[in-house]
Design a protein that fits this description.
5 strands; 41% helix
Length: 185
């Protein structure tokens, strides 16, 4: 059985370390997990008035894509001790309109990464706070804060740090078990 996991990356930056992490995830994951990155940069800011006129096509596509995924992996930088606005907007778009929350009950995990030593701790926990409100069962342990993240990749975007690769592999194994508990029959 294949489990589909939507990856949402909270960075718009082309050279983002968060995008680099998203690219190495599939090669570190257990067999049976299929990952697909869901783009969020093109989503208009959430405004309920737009639903009354005609739901933007990008919102409908995004909601359908998340709804069809078995689980979600969020990978985010930290901006001012919180998540980037583009990621918060995606969370909001998926949670509306009221009563049609595509996140509800969907198992998730959060990885935060930053050039600093704290590894995006504030963003990780701010995102978790929103996800609790949306009834998303988020993997509790291990927590994933990737500090000094730019030093872990070479110029081609390949992960060069063996201990980080081992950590991410173990993290993904735990996430797979979490999905089994919360999603699979």
């Amino acid at each position: 059985m294949t489990t589909s996991i939507a990856i949402l990356v909270g960075s718009l930056r082309r050279a983002s370390v968060n995008h680099k992490i998203a690219r190495v995830i599939p090669e570190l994951a257990p067999a049976g997990l299929k990952f697909g990155t869901v783009e969020i940069a093109h989503l208009p800011f959430y405004n309920p008035d737009l639903e009354e006129i005609e739901t933007p096509a990008s919102w409908a596509t995004f909601r359908r894509t998340i709804g069809e995924a078995d689980a979600v992996l969020f990978i985010t930088p930290e901006y001012n001790r919180s998540i980037p606005g583009v990621l918060k907007n995606a969370v909001d778009v998926g949670s509306r309109p009221y009563g049609k929350n595509v996140w509800a009950g969907k198992p998730a995990a959060v990885i935060s990464a930053s050039p600093g030593s704290v590894g995006g701790f504030g963003a990780n926990h701010h995102l978790r706070q929103s996800l609790v409100c949306l009834d998303v069962p988020v993997l509790q342990q291990p927590e994933a804060y990737i500090g000094e993240a730019y030093s872990l990749f070479d110029d081609s975007g390949h992960l060069t740090n063996d201990s980080t690769a081992a950590f991410l592999s173990a993290f993904l194994s735990k996430f797979d078990a979490w999905i089994t508990i919360h999603c699979r029959p």
